[in-house]
Amino acid sequence: MSDVAKNPSVADVQMQANYEKLANVIDLYSGKQGCLIQVLHAAQEIFGYLPFEVQKYVADNMGFSVSYVSSVSSFYSFFSTTPRTKHDVKVCLGTACYVRGGKLLIEKLQEILGIGVGEATADNVFSIHVTRCVGACGLAPVVVVDDDVYKQVKPGDIAGILDQYRGE
Ligand code: FES
């Protein structure tokens, strides 16, 4: 037996416990129609987010394909496939925001933070996400940082918005 197997780390034990909790949730919902979203919600509460391994576990144990579970995980903005950062920066790419320059806002965020969509900065302070319509289309394009909604944002506003959250 290897040292790792004989002496599992605290993180290994915690991860094992998390998968056991998830297995119980899946048992609870087994055989019920339309329960994937509830299971993914529970998985996100347990693990903090939905990494690929967790999506695969859910898919394998619920009889779905991994691609189906991944598509559901990425479709709904309340699911995160990356670890939670201190501040989640979401750019709306609903139709109104897209037409009025939402994509340029994403490019500016990527340039300033040096990360792509769905990625987190090395210090785990910021992550970039795309969201669908947040109901402020009349004042598009919109950026949401945590629960703060910024309207009619221009690429030149991005640095100033981020500065408000740095060093908090
Ligand atoms: S499309 Fe962005 S707020 Fe509606």
Describe this structure in words.
With 168 residues, the chain is an alpha+beta fold. It folds into 2 domains: 3-75, no CATH class; 87-163, 3-Layer(aba) Sandwich (Glutaredoxin), CATH 3.40.30.10. It has 8 helices and 4 strands, in the order αααααβααβββα. It has helices spanning 3-6, 10-29, 36-47, 52-62, 66-75, 95-99, 102-113, 158-163, and strands at residues 87-92, 126-131, 143-145, 148-150. It has a 4-stranded mixed β-sheet, covered by helices on one side. It is globular and about 50 Å long. The structure holds FE2/S2 (inorganic) cluster (FES). Residues 92, 94-97, 133-137, 140, 142 line the site of FE2/S2 (inorganic) cluster. FE2/S2 (inorganic) cluster is lined by residues 92, 94-97, 133-137, 140, 142.
Q: What pattern of helices and strands is seen along the backbone? A: HHHHHEHHEEEH
At the first level of CATH, the class of the largest domain is: Alpha Beta
Which percent range describes the beta-strand content? 5-15%
CATH superfamily of the largest domain: Glutaredoxin
Mean pLDDT: 90
Give a short account of the largest sheet.
4 strands, mixed
How do the helices and strands line up, and which of them pair or pack?
Elements: H1 3-6, H2 10-29, H3 36-47, H4 52-62, H5 66-75, E1 87-92, H6 95-99, H7 102-113, E2 126-131, E3 143-145, E4 148-150, H8 158-163
Parallel strand pairs: 1-2
Antiparallel strand pairs: 1-3, 3-4
Helix pairs in contact: 2-3, 2-4, 3-4, 4-5
This protein binds FE2/S2 (inorganic) cluster (FES).
